[in-house]
Design goal:
The protein is of the alpha/beta class. It has 2 domains: 335 residues, TIM Barrel, CATH 3.20.20.80; 79 residues, Immunoglobulin-like, CATH 2.60.40. The chain has 12 helices and 24 strands. The protein has an 8-stranded parallel sheet. The chain has a 4-stranded mixed sheet with strand order 5-8-7-6, with no helix packed on it. A 4-stranded antiparallel sheet has the order 17-18-22-21. Helix 2 crosses helix 3, helix 4 runs parallel beside helix 5 and helix 6 packs across helix 9. The longest helix is centred in the first third of the chain and has 20 residues. Keywords: Membrane, Transmembrane, Transmembrane helix. This is DUF4434 domain-containing protein. Pfam families: DUF4434 (PF14488). It comes from Nonomuraea longispora.
């Protein structure tokens, strides 16, 4: 989700949390959090969210419960950056009066740093004296060696700073609510001259550190039903990749470690698509990108969650009959006041369909709907730092994104819970999560095809919240009651109808009287 910006957000939050902890007197933590409410009262079609681990267990419980209430069953965290450069934030780490990077009797060749929201288990410390958990200047650090043997005279060190066991809290709460967590893998160091590429000078060290972290996860979380798998944080475009592509090489190297240390655990990847003419790529390349990414899984199960591109303005959400229409106002700041065809190679559904044709065995296709707007407007909450600013979207636009994802995705997830689903323009206005909880029952059609049943022609629709009610067919305006319904991963509903002319869209009204916010455009 927006490459390096995502990691800047995570580090900013950690830094702010540390500063607040230093200068604001801490409130005593309550002995007990409120009783958990494990009901799902508003099951929306989005079932997973990117979240930020919290050191406060009760804050974590409130977050997990809010997501679970609206149907969420999956939580994803970003992997901290495995940093090969100097980090002034580690200057306060000292052992026996010495900087943590100095170890008497050992030659230290290189020092890596890693800022995280977790506390490792005791098994992480293998080398007595050399590897340590350190409390220094009010913070917790770890000093770890990447050497294969503790007795070696030369060591590469990893200094780890943590703001608490946010990941442990997240795992515990997810287990209590019957949810899954995908912790982020350590994110590769970036090239200074090309920060969108990994620095392969440090891939060996990254692999060694990844193996240590995953072994710790295996020991701490291996018996928990909440440990769903791991998330690959280093982003790439889901397009035809060149031979010897550096990001694909990173994936292959790090995913082999996952398959070896955590056999059978899924790897989640969320590549982006870019439909902008002159900067992006056409839908046909999405299938090639799917195949290239899937080839890095080293035998591990994989879920590829395609970023739909609507939040960043890289890809539009529209039907085939709107190709010549002007881009919607929220996209104009990104691509200009032009038509969809002039601005983009295609819409979200075209890219997802191209990817769906290339899904191999052992891989699931998910869709990551971006839950924000490219730019904010006056009076709208959203992300204020770091740049670029992002605005809050609406529940009806999320419905459109889910519709555009089509019937191929086995799961819909979204970036990201904070701040986009939780922020409020004012204290007395609802958040996006509040809007979902209030309006979750509206039908969402993700597919519509002509289908005969028992020798009668009609239209079959697939989607969410379709049971009962009727289907409206435009431009003719005919409203026909459903005669058949089936539940499954997607609901299906059928109504007998033969359009007298071209059929452009279908709108559903379910038995509870709720009507879809947008018509589904027939393809």
């Amino acid at each position: 989700m927006e490459g390096a910006w995502v990691h800047r957000i995570l580090w900013l939050i950690v830094a702010v949390a540390f500063v607040v902890g230093v200068f604001v007197p801490a409130s005593p933590e309550p002995e007990e959090c409120p009783p958990r409410d494990t009901r799902v009262t508003a099951p929306y079609a989005i079932t997973g969210y990117w979240v930020i681990p919290r050191a406060d267990r009760c804050v974590t419980q409130r977050m997990v419960e809010a997501i679970h209430t609206i149907g969420g069953d999956t939580l994803v965290t970003f992997g901290p950056r495995f940093n090969a450069g100097e980090d002034p934030g580690f200057a306060s780490c000292r052992v026996d009066g010495r900087p943590c990077a100095q170890v008497p009797g050992k030659q230290i060749r290189r020092v890596y740093t890693y800022t995280t929201s977790e506390e490792f288990g005791k098994g992480m410390l293998r080398c007595p004296g050399l590897e340590r958990r350190i409390e220094s200047a009010g913070r917790v650090f770890y000093r770890l060696s990447l050497a294969e043997n503790c007795r070696e005279p030369v060591h590469d060190l990893v200094l780890v700073a943590t703001d608490g066991d946010g990941l442990g809290n997240l795992m515990a709460e997810a287990a209590a609510y019957g949810m899954k967590v995908f912790p982020g893998l350590p994110a590769a160091a970036q090239r200074e001259d090309k920060p969108w590429e990994p620095d392969h000078d440090h891939t060996g060290a990254l692999k060694a550190f990844t193996a240590r972290v995953l072994a710790d996860y295996r020991a701490r979380f291996g018996g928990s039903g909440a440990f769903g798998g791991v998330y690959q944080s280093f982003e790439l475009a889901m397009r035809d990749r060149a031979d010897n592509d550096p990001i694909i090489e990173l994936y292959a190297a790090q995913h082999a470690v996952v398959a070896g240390v955590l056999p059978g655990r899924p790897i989640l990847v969320s590549p982006y698509i870019d439909a902008r003419r002159g900067r992006g790529f056409p839908p046909e390349q999405a299938g090639d990108g799917m195949a290239d990414i899937a080839a890095t899984r080293a035998g591990a199960p994989m879920a590829i969650a395609v970023q739909d591109g609507r939040g960043t303005g890289k890809v539009p959400v529209h039907g085939p009959h709107e190709t010549g229409a002007k881009v919607v106002p929220r996209l104009a700041p990104v691509v200009g006041d032009v038509s969809n065809a002039e601005a983009y190679y295609g819409a979200t559904h075209a890219y997802v369909e191209a990817a769906a044709r290339e899904v191999p065995d052992g891989v699931e296709l998910w869709v990551n709907v971006e839950g924000f707007e490219p730019t904010p407007v006056a009076g709208e909450c959203g992300r204020v730092d770091p740049l670029p600013l992002r605005g809050r979207t609406t529940k009806s636009r999320l419905d459109q994104q889910i519709m555009a994802s089509g019937p191929h995705a086995t799961k819909i997830i979204s970036y990201g819970w904070d701040p986009f689903f939780t922020c409020q323009a004012r204290h007395d206005t609802p958040s996006l999560a509040d809007d979902i909880a209030r309006d979750w029952q509206r039908p969402i059609i993700v597919n519509a095809v002509r289908q005969d049943r028992n020798g009668r022609p009609g239209i079959l629709v697939e989607g969410h919240n379709l049971r009962g009610g009727s289907l409206r067919f435009d431009p003719h305006g005919a409203v026909v009651r459903q005669e058949w319904h089936s539940d499954g991963r997607l609901e299906s509903a059928w109504a007998p109808y033969v359009p007298p002319g071209p059929l452009t869209s279908v709108t559903a009204t379910n038995g509870a009287g709720h009507t879809s916010t947008s018509p589904y455009a027939m393809r």
